[in-house]
Amino acid sequence: xxxxxxxxxxxxxxxxxxxxxxxxxxxxxxxxxxxxxxxxxxxxxxxxxxxxxxxxxxxxxxxxxxxxxxxxxxxxxxxxxxxxxxxxxxxxxxxxxxxxxxxxxxxxxxxxxxxxxxxxxxxxxxxxxxxxxxxxxxxxxxxxxxxxxxxxxxxxxx
Length: 158
Description:
mainly alpha, elongated, about 80% helix, single chain
């Protein structure tokens, strides 16, 4: 069994968590004003749940990326998989910019669909290298599927 490379693990987790931090810059200011005025679906979770859920999901993403990275950066398949991971991470951060920053649920829904497919592509790419890493992303795609329903509902209701 290989030992854990803590610096790489920390880097992978911090990079993943940064997507959430970037998104929060656009989210925090919109929640007490614009977002509270929106009509939301009945099953919309309470606001306090989003922070802990996303923090946990970014942690899982970081661990998954670490597991792939540890398979060797010199491996072309590893670099490609982490490239796809980077794209989905950028799309993840962009959703908050579009939904909260631009206050555009319709455009955010289109962006979220792109994110969903990027997550799926990441899971597929990761599964070729580490099934464990791929499985760590399953809660993420499930949550984003639910988020797409919420986004779609908000767009329709407003």
